[in-house]
Amino acid sequence: MAARETFAFQSEGKQLLDLMVHSVYSNREIFLRELVSNASDALDKLRVASLTNEALRSSFSDPHIRIAVDKDARILRVSDNGIGMNREDLVTYLGTIAKSGTKEFLQYMAERKEALTPELIGQFGVGFYSSFMVADLVEVLTRKAGEETAWLWRSSGDGTYTIEEGYRDTCGTTVTLHLKPVASEGDDDEGRRPWERTSGEDVADEWTIRRIVRKYSDFVAYPIRMEVRHFDKDGKEVGTKDEVLNSMKAIWSRPEAEVTEEEYREFYTHVSKDWAEPLTHIVYSAEGATTFRALLYLPSKAPMDLFLREGDRGIQLYVKRVFIMQDCKELIPEYLRFLRGVVDAEDLPLNISREILQQDRRIAVIRKSLTRKVLDELKRLRDGKRETYVAFWREFGKVLKEGIFADERNRETLLSLALFRTTTREWITLDDYLEGMKPEQKAVYFLSGGTLETLRNSPHLEAFRDRGYEVLLLDDPVDDFWTGVVESYRDKPLTSVAKGAADLDAPKEQEKNLEEKEREEAFEPLLKALAERLKDEVSSVRLSRRLTTSPACLVGETHSMTPQMEQLLRQMGQEVPKLKRILEVNPSHPVLERLQRRFAEGGSLGDVPELLYGQALLAEGGTLSDPARFARLVAELLARDLEEARREA
Ligand code: ADP
Ligand code: MG
Fold this sequence. Notes:
Ribosomal Protein S5, domain 2, 22 strands, 9-stranded mixed β-sheet, binds magnesium ion, about 35% helix, elongated, Four Helix Bundle (Hemerythrin (Met), subunit A), Heat Shock Protein 90, 3 domains, 5-stranded mixed β-sheet, binds adenosine-5'-diphosphate, alpha+beta
């Protein structure tokens, strides 16, 4: 037998080890995730090797992981019958750190010059060495598949380890942890909520182990067995029995045809904590540069906190069936944040941190391909199951529309996915709109800002209604953002009916008939006078082509901000110059006709300019700066009117 030999850890290994040995934090439990995942990897490796190597075929039988615990002796064992390691492997893999992420981790720690916090350790999984968080002596007894000799590796985390020959009757690995005493109360729970506290919890406890396995390793593809205490129905202990702790139900890695709707639904509840049924699910697997599988769900109802970016119910990241993190925001763009489900990546390291995720090229690839897949599925839904799609849109359309603004690459697709209510129809696409356009109609018209009700009644719509032009009614705050960046859809300009001069077949100068010209000239002095009186409120006053029944309305310059946008920016604390719009008046309206006549005869304008402006603002759902004054003016007007009526009678 080879004698026991002593080795020193390679420098980074020693550094990491020191961190582990001296760290005090609540996420100690991840050590089990790491050991189980190594065991699962070892079984994967043996399975693959046995496919090509005849000699190993018999070794790969009843693949499993076993956890054994002796609470009194404070010993915990994790074993597998996987590929195992020989002497050289032990030196290479357990004496050296070759893992991606570790260097970054150490560097990060050095830069922060801080103790390990639970948050930090949670972010950086740390592999095999995490055993030293809970153990003061670690032994690895292992035998490589196809070899005869077994080896025993030991270390107490003090900078050195030993290797000697050992005995094992099958291939595989057993990691034995000699556990430290139970964490004393209070050393790591400060500032944590009661249910998150873990001090006092003993990792040698059966129920603790069950909990940890369920939390991190439930979907590991091999059974994780443990001999557990067995009770009769009176609660009396009647011996022990073997139990499989994990469900192994990684339903995303099974062929879609083999999974029942019921299972998909159950899993949705598991990942989303939502008891309602999902609207639909998307199964996706990608192979190549980055291999991953995804199972995503569209919920049927938006949660309360859809607009709060926090919340921990987004998409779970798994790496090779091992749970990594709860709400991995990097996997999807923000405008798809309503998605729930799982992404399981094959070639990411287990110890990937949030910081690294943000820059990881593989994550970027996954995000891009998931986005495309989800948008494709939405298109399918839009074209194949319009009713379901409308239900989806009503809940999440607001969020998806953020993408029109934010995701330039997919802008066209997102525009084609958007549904709209219009002056004549409900929930139509822009393509539906184009189909319904009048032959002479030049643009896609929309009106935004305010509630659906005020939009529907807005004076801006009058001339468009008259001509039978449909107008999109945009009542979500986000609409102001994307309409600001989208100029056209399929070559048709996107035009606000409340901005610019309504380009509704405006007659060219020479075509204007005499009557019209005369009227314009006649109104000229009145318009000037109105503009002068309202100069603090409006930029100019002009005759309107968009009004038929209302006396006046307010319109923006073609490229100016909408009043809603202005308000939003103010609420966000930004300095915004007061926005002045154009007052358009309707020369055919009796108020304007009479006002013009009276003004031409030398009569005064009285309070009419203010009243005109005020009611134009009210008609579009705006707010008056001095409502009390406006109410008083209206009351005075009423009083005069009633007085006149009395005199006439
Ligand atoms: P990682 O799993 O990310 O590679 P670890 O620190 O968890 O990093 O493990 C280091 C290496 O030790 C593994 O890559 C593997 O080669 C070897 N190893 C650890 N546990 C086992 C095991 N149970 N069976 C076989 N090899 C193992
Ligand atoms: Mg590992």
